[in-house]
Write a structure and sequence with these properties.
The complex is a heterodimer of chains A (about 325) and B (about 280). Helices cover about 75% and strands about 0% of the residues of chain A. Chain A is mainly alpha-helical and about 325 residues long. In chain A, helix 5 runs parallel beside helix 9 (about 185-210) and helix 13 packs antiparallel against helix 14. Chain A is flat, with a radius of gyration of 27 Å. The relative contact order of chain A is 0.11. Chain B is mainly α and about 280 residues long. Chain B folds into two domains: about 1-40; about 60-280, MetI-like (MetI-like fold), CATH 1.10.3720.10. Chain B has twelve helices and no strands. Chain B has helices at about 1-40, 60-65, 70-105, 110-120, 125-135, 145-170, 170-180, 185-195, 200-215, 215-220, 230-240, 245-280. Chain B is flat, with a radius of gyration of 24 Å. Classes of the chains: A mainly alpha (about 325), B mainly alpha (about 280). Chains A and B meet through helix 1, helix 3, helix 5, helix 6 and helix 7 of A and helix 1, helix 3, helix 4, helix 5 and helix 6 of B.
């Protein structure tokens, strides 16, 4: 604010010591104009976010306390009845459990794989050109959209597919396994696909983080007689911790919201073993047309995401 | 003696690292190699036993089948139109906002910035139900503008955060000199700041295009007819109809990934830099 004011006086349109009223008024106007300037730059964003974020969130909360909306022309206020119904729904409980398993296993695996691959790509033992090729290959899964990844893994994991062939040849399984349609295996299979699809984003960030660690930290550790493992635990890991926390929170938010992968591989089945909060909500709305209950479920998901977002924002602020 | 040992240890370590790198490359790359190989097979050979990477009937037939079918070509046109429009609009809006965040101090800067960071966490599924109502009410159901507008809610927050990060790396004196000389902020932004920010704008643009190109949930719900479907939905439609045309699905997957692959390979350096600058250290 003061900086703006300084600039006003410097450019000669600030308060005039001679005190001519017309000029003063124009100066005041100009100052308001200047003061509102940043807001005018933000205006398009603000309008878009208001229309596409604030209004819809108010709408969905409104829907969640009505009896059936959209299909019903004059819905009535029913208070928290939908919340009682959804929170007591058996399938909702299953969906919460599945989402938790899917999310936690995926995020841990993304973290471990991302870190291991980033360390491999950060090696000085082979040539830079070689590393560049490996880096592109390692990023590949991330460059394919989820719809494509889903179709690809349906091909690979087909009972007559190449994965089963390789496992059979190795003697690991006897006959074609129905990875995606067996109630015992489907959740593990979709989790595996999600791990494959999502580790590169972790890896890229970790790699950038690794390359940002000052060399002399390692040199100092070596001089102190630290073993490679000690250098890793005492230099690398502490230096990467802020990135690891950011990425883990972001990944928790994204993975818990995953829809397309589940929808296109198992559709939540067989018998709900891969039902996630997102597919549960989608089916309520667009298969059963229970828009009010779907909104309730959507609000619950929003609240859970906001808890994670709170930690994420707080962490980002602490890093600044 | 010691030197020889050390050299031997180093050689062993190198072998270990190379083996680990190859194993990782197999994990990441073999599924994609299989997708590529399957797109050249005839559909009857997809599940032949034992499976082979290359078969006798190697051909581009699956690609020709896709590219000669106007319905399928339309999926691609739709995806390009929507993704390019989202990219251009997002860039314009984000550059304006990022300029304010980077170059001005104002009262609501911190809360606004926090809102933009946390907006990224709002689940798409939560917005989907009200969007469905809104889009139908506004007559935007099954139209390009309906998709373009709703996609911007995901692309904009990232774009603003990444763009602000980029502007912050450029010295304020550059554009402030122009403003003090009497030119408006708009001139300072578009004539001075934007031209020197091309690398940043490219990385934000590529990332925005990728998000739009890959979007699935809204495209699935907010469009209805085949002539409005995008590539991700089109691939799914190939799966449903009568039989599974696996070779065509794989060909369409490859064709559908080419824009993102090309953008990534060309702009890799900008892209990774911009991405990590924006999302990791915002």
């Amino acid at each position: 604010m003061t900086a703006l004011f300084d600039r006003d006086t410097r450019s000669g349109i600030g308060p005039d010591p001679a005190g001519r009223p017309a000029l003063q008024r124009r100066a005041a106007l100009s100052r308001t104009y200047r003061r509102s300037e940043p807001y005018r730059f933000i205006l398009p964003t603000a309008v878009l976010l208001f229309v596409l974020m604030v209004i819809p969130i108010i709408m969905v909360i409104g829907y969640s306390v009505m009896d059936n909306v959209i299909t019903n022309r004059s819905p009535e206020f029913v208070g928290l009845a939908n919340y009682v119904a959804v929170l007591g729904d058996r399938i909702f409980h299953t969906a919460v459990g599945n989402t938790l398993i899917f999310t936690i296993v995926s995020v841990v695996a993304h973290l471990v794989l991302g870190l291991v691959f980033a360390l491999l790509l950060n090696t000085t033992l082979i040539s830079r050109a070689g590393i560049a090729i490996f880096r592109v290959i390692y990023i590949l899964p991330w460059l394919f959209t989820v719809a494509i990844i889903a179709v690809l893994w349906r091909l690979l994991l087909n009972p007559n597919g190449v994965v089963n062939y390789l496992l059979q040849s190795a003697g690991a399984v006897e006959s074609g396994v129905e990875w995606l349609s067996s109630p015992d295996l489907a959740l593990a299979a979709v989790t595996f696909i999600n791990i494959w699809a999502g580790y590169p984003f972790f890896m890229i960030s970790m790699l950038a983080g690794l390359q940002g660690i000052p060399r002399d930290l390692y040199e100092a550790a070596t001089v102190d007689g630290a073993s490679p493992w000690q250098r890793f635990t005492n230099v690398t890991l502490p230096q990467l911790t802020p990135i690891i926390i950011s990425m883990t929170l972001l990944d928790l938010i994204w993975t818990s919201q995953q829809f397309a992968l589940i929808w296109m591989t198992t559709g939540g089945g067989p018998i709900n073993v891969t039902e996630m909060l997102s597919t549960f909500t989608y089916k309520l709305a667009f298969s059963r047309y229970e828009f009010a209950q779907a909104s309730t479920s959507a609000v619950i998901i929003l609240l859970l995401s906001m808890v994670l977002a709170f930690f994420y924002v707080r962490h980002q602020k602490a890093r600044d | 003696m010691l030197a020889l040992d050390r050299r031997r240890v180093r050689a062993l370590m190198r072998i270990g690292v190379v083996l680990a790198l190859l194993a990782g490359a197999g994990f990441a790359g073999l599924p994609i190699l299989w997708m590529l190989a399957s797109s050249f097979k005839s559909n009857t050979e997809i599940f032949e036993y034992p499976p082979r990477l290359l078969t006798d009937s190697f051909s581009f037939d699956a690609y020709l089948a896709i590219l000669s079918d106007p319905v399928k070509v339309r999926f691609f046109i739709n995806s390009y139109v929507v993704s390019l429009a989202v990219t251009v609009l997002t860039l314009i809006v984000a550059i304006l906002a990022a300029y304010a965040f980077s170059r001005f101090d104002f009262r609501f800067k911190k809360p606004l910035n926090m809102i933009i960071v946390s907006v990224q966490a709002v689940p798409p599924i939560t917005l989907l139900i009200p969007y469905f109502g809104l889009v139908v009410t506004l007559g935007l159901y099954n139209t390009y503008p309906g998709l373009i507008l709703t996609y911007m809610v995901f692309t904009l927050p990232y774009a603003i955060i990444m763009m602000t990060g980029y502007f912050n790396t450029l010295p304020r004196e550059l554009d402030e000199a122009v403003r003090v000389d009497g030119a408006g902020s708009m001139t300072a932004l578009w004539r001075v700041l934007v031209p020197i920010s091309i690398p940043g704008i490219v990385s934000v643009g590529v990332y925005t295009f990728m998000i739009a190109w890959n979007e699935y949930l809204f495209a699935l719900t907010l469009t209805r007819t085949d002539d409005m479907r995008t590539v991700p939905i089109g691939i799914q439609l190939l799966m449903g109809q009568h039989s599974y045309e696996w070779n065509e699905m794989m060909a369409m997957s490859i064709l559908g990934s080419i824009p993102v692959l090309i953008l990534f390979l060309f702009f890799q350096k900008y892209f990774i830099g911009g991405l990590t600058a924006g999302s990791v250290k915002s």
